Amino acid sequence: MNVSMKALLGVSRAPFLLLSVLLVASASAASAWDAQVQGTGEGFSWLHTLLALVGLAAMHIAVNAFNEASDMANGIDLATVRTPFSGGSGTLPAGLLSVTGARIVAAVGLGIGLAIGGYFLVVIGWALLPILALGVLAVVAYSPWMLRIGLGEVFAGLGLGALPVLGTALVQDGIIGPAAIAVSVPAFFMTFNLLLLNEFPDEQADRAGGRRHLVILLGRRRAAQLYAGACLATALAILVAVIPPVAALPTTALVAWVALGAAAPAIIWALRRAEQAVPIPALAGNVMWNLGTHLVLAAVLSFVAIRC
To answer: What tens digit of pLDDT does each residue of 134-161 get?
Structure first.
């Protein structure tokens, strides 16, 4: 198969792979902080962090490529109105890659992820198996099933949110500490919302293509209210994590609230103008809020872990 770099980057949705980088960063920093507070374990391994990043990025590429192939096969890609944040990459409709080619790219990514997961099962143990199994399910079942039964957003929140954080923490030294669990909660809500908001522009094309995600099942207004509620839940999860009796994160983790300002255009739209098209600044702010929160948490937790 002769695949151009443009086609590979397109079907992989390369700009969105930054989420995988920041998930691993925030999880690794949380694990290092846990080691300092609990006084057990090494808390951080450069080798295992790098392998976790490669494995997660490979799985991320796999789910993106499978989704691109599915959208082209069922006609969604030919009907959607593309934005920089939704509607697919346009790689397959442009003829840069075939549906079969996209599936091969996805299979290679899945294979790399499984190989690294297998290595970690040997060196870390079977405690990783449930996380790995759910992650694989999120990759292979996301497009053909989960998006058709109202579970796409939940599995996105798991597969590219909570599970990578927990898994990355576990492969550091075989322990999932309180800070890693605390970081996994907002990670779930933010990736849940990342997908949910991006589904609004594709509502009609997705409906025609047989998808049944939450925008279609709940209607635009209630789905938009759910988006705003998940934003609030993210902020509350960080607050609960820093105050007693939980106190899993240092108080300085509240700095991550600053990133929520990027989601303000999306929240205002969700509460006031849900029946209208989602503005591009709202879609962009949704992404920046997600990435910014992980970046701040990674930086804060790394700093306090080093200082301790």
So the answer is: 999 999 999 999 999 999 999 999 999 9
Could you tell me if residue 250 is left (phi over 0), alpha (psi between -120 and 50 degrees) or otherwise beta?
A: beta
What would the DSSP string read from start to end of 241-303? HHSTTT--S-GGGGGGGGGGGGGHHHHHHHHH-TTSPPPHHHHHHHHHHHHHHHHHHHHHHHH
pLDDT score recorded for residue 88: 84
Burial, 126: exposed, middle or buried (Cβ in 10 Å; 0-12, 13-18, 19+)?
exposed
How high is the pLDDT of residue 12? 94
Backbone torsion region of residue 288, taken as left when φ is above 0, otherwise alpha when ψ lies between -120 and 50, otherwise beta: alpha
Residue 238 burial (CB < 10 Å; 0-12/13-18/19+)? buried
Tell me, yes or no, if the pTM score tops 0.90. yes
For residues 168 and 177, what is the distance between their CA atoms, to the nearest angstrom? Answer: 11
Domains along the sequence of the chain with CATH: 5-307 (1.10.600)
Q: Looking at 43-177, list the stretches that DSSP marks H as alpha helix, in order from N- to C-terminal side.
A: 46-73, 76-79, 99-123, 129-141, 152-157, 163-173
Q: What is the pLDDT of residues 45-59, one digit of tens each?
A: 899 999 999 999 999
Q: Which of 188, 189, 194 has its CA nearest to residue 162?
A: 188
Answer for the pair 92, 69: CB distance below 8 angstroms, yes or no: yes
Residues of the chain with pLDDT under 70: 1-2, 38-42, 308
